[in-house]
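Database export, one record per block. Field names are fixed; values are copied verbatim from the stored entry.
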Amino acid sequence: MFGRIHNMYLLVTALYLFFSCAKPVEIIIPDDPVYPIAGTATVDNKIVANYNGSGFYFATAQVIYYPNTSEVFPDISVRVSLSTNYLPQFWSIDGNSAFKLLDSSLDSSSAYAFFDSLTAISDTSGFVSPISNLSVYQTVAVRALQNKYAKILITKITVDSSNSITETTFKWVYQPDGSLTFPAK
């Protein structure tokens, strides 16, 4: 009796496994993954391991280190300008990004009000790289790779002039379709 029950159990288990595993599992990988279009990021020029610093790549919404084996360059990197008394500057490693100062506010409430109300870039002229004399509460437009645009609000800057190291934190909004209008919140 025990042998029949045991054999029946094995047969039912085998049939269950066969039929449940026989169905193909469909894994859907989107052709164009969706990445965040807004957030906060911190970049620096600290030399770590084999990297010369970190930068931000808007297309994948991530901080990346450079140089890297995939030869992806960040849209925005930061460094200290020795010619302007160790003030930080944004620069483009590969020359494909450029920057334009849109506003310099004196306090956080004015800076956030300007940044949040900025719905579009009205003029695409005047972009430069590097952009120097960065300070907290500045809003900067970024022309990224493939002429796609972002706006950033600098919220924190730390400079260690003894080591020529800077770290910059910013709030950002990216327009992945290449238009000059930023997505609504």
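Remark 1: The beta strands are 38-44, 53-57, 62-66, 76-81, 87-91, 98-104, 138-143, 149-160, 165-175.
Remark 2: The first helix runs from residue 2 to 22.
End of record.
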